[in-house]
Amino acid sequence: MPQSVRSLLLKGVVWNFVEKVLIRSASFVIGIILARLLSPSDYGLIGMLAVFIAISNVFIEGGLAKALIQRQNCQDIDYSTAFVANVVMAVCIYLLLFFCSPWIADFYDEPILTDLTRVLGLNFVLGSFNIVQRARLMANVDFKSLAQINVASTIISGGIGIGMAYMGFGVWALVGQSIGSTIVLMALFPLYSKWRPSLKFSKDSFNHLFGFGSKLMITGVMSTIINNISTLCIGRYYKSHQLGYYTRASSFSELISFTVFEVLGNVTFPVLSGLQNERERLIQVYKKSLFFTAVIMFPIMILTTLLAKPIVLFLLTDKWLPCVALMQWLLLARMFLPVSAINMNVLNAIGRSDLYMKLDFSKIPLDIVILVITVPIGVEAITIGSFVNSLICFFINAYLPGRLLGYGGLKQLYDWRYIFLSVAVMTASVLLFLHFVETVWIQLFFGGIVGLVVYVICCYKLKIVDDEMLVMLKLK
Hints:
Order of helices and strands: HHHHHHHHHHHHHHHHHHHHHHH
Number of helices: 23
Structural class: mainly alpha
Shape: globular
Oligomer: single chain
């Protein structure tokens, strides 16, 4: 690889990592402050619109941003065409939501959703001006600019949301935060991208871009619906405050699982792809990648599950206590996310994206069946169903790698037996500590220290660190 390209990629990776750390940290602090100022019902109302917002965003982009990044030697007419298409689609989506907002309000039996939908929907039109600008920076691997823009947007919009919440605006504080973020992005992107949009449109360019992007759009819509169907059902059949508890519990568990996956899981795909013609080494690295991820992921999620109550009491106050049980089940459910993702990624790494797609779609009936069973029972039942779903999906995701590479779900669990033993000892130690200590902040901080120390000692005694984790540092 040429030195200039290597340097460019290294800078991109570093700034992408910095962006994620800063944004996640800032968003976490802002979210805690807002949760203390606002009610669960406020979050529930926004959660009711989540599926409509997410699907609309997929349609507005239409995969054109990724098509611009993928296409080599993009001309100004390509950017202008994508810009016009995005804006037109955004206006159409907004008008559709504007006139359908009374139906959305009736669906959830929440009259305020009519106004919330119409105001929050303005984000689609405003945000459509940023899509091409963002794509240009990503195509140029300019993650430094993206980091600066997104961090500034997160902090400024967070300040707007906190200020409005403090002044008693309730749910509108969350709307103000969202729109404020988009407006800041509109102001900053042109300064960094050095590109000014025009109204030029090329049918040939659109056909080429949409030909690539439409496939991503279809996959994105399906994925978005599946990911948000639980939220849709809870909002439809239960009260807004119950959905608020669920969304807060979900966002907390996602913060941990997605962060761990992005730090560990995303690294495995390019490594495995580079070894696709070296089967034996591919299998070895694949096994080590799974083991390394399990060593990190399982204790973090289990320890957070054990400390969920003091975490909620210390950070969010007792008004959020009903979300503790939901958080615990969702943490257990998302414990398997990174290892399942690696099992799926290995299929792409060996060039079997067809199997990846079939495997992904094969799990849809399971999602539907579990929701049909759990939704009538209650919100906690839905989260328990999510755990059962993730456990079953782990074996489904590991099935084809087992057939192709000889390393299926049962073999993976067997290789992780000492990890489970270490986690079990850690769990017993923390539960014993929590039994004798009642002060919340002591439970949280010292309980976490006890858990981590016991787990590390177990890993050392069982030689997990020496035999497995350190080998990951030697991978080329």
